Amino acid sequence: MPARPRWRCTRRAYRHSVARPRPGPFPYAAGMASRSRPVSGTDEATEPTRERLRVGRSLSIPIGEIEWRATTSGGPGGQHANRSYTKVEVRFDVLRSPSLGPRQRARLLERLGPVVRASAGENRSQARNREVALDRLVSRLAEGLRAEPPRRATTPSASSTERRLAEKHSRAAIKRSRARPGPDD
Fold it and tell me: How many independent structural domains does the chain possess?
């Protein structure tokens, strides 16, 4: 058993003053390189594992058509938030995309405009923010491409009209009974 120091210290302070082996590199660091996406302006970025972005059954967009930008996320978090490029913004140009059909392009231009953007900066990891931004872009594109079925005008049935009028008459009778009685009542 090691000799205790002469000075008085708490157990926590003593425990942290003892030299401990430092942990090794991040255990998933090797796998993260294969999942990273190229960010504009970086040559050392590796190719993504996903070659196409699947939006729906009828549309898949090549990853090369999506523009990436990494910025500092800002906000609380100290030096990590101010110095690390963890916020990711993705941008998809609807006008110049060759993978869109004419009807898809027209619908997206009408609903979302010529450029669709999505960003994510709430995670500390740039890789996780990339995935979140891509998911947000996919959901925005899918929402913009969704075709709403036309509304068919219908008339209320005779029984539903009769029920509605009966409810109105009963409600009117209840309100009449609450009124202050007149001089001849």
Answer: 1
- CA 120 to CA 139: how far, in whole Å? 14
Examine residue 179 and state whether it is found in any structural domain, yes or no: no
Q: Domain limits at 137?
A: 34-145
Alpha helix stretches (DSSP H) within the chain: 11-17, 29-35, 78-83, 102-111, 126-145, 158-178
* Within-domain flag for 152: no
- 93-130 pLDDT tens trace: 999 999 999 999 999 999 999 999 999 988 888 899 99
Please indicate whether residue 98 or residue 183 has the higher confidence score (pLDDT): 98
pLDDT in tens, 79-91: 777 788 889 999 9
> Burial code of 34-55, b = ≥16 C-beta within 10 A, e = fewer?
eebbbbeeeeeeeebeeeebeb
- Residue at 117 is within a domain: yes
65 phi, psi to nearest 5 deg = -80, -10
CATH number at residue 128: 3.30.160.20
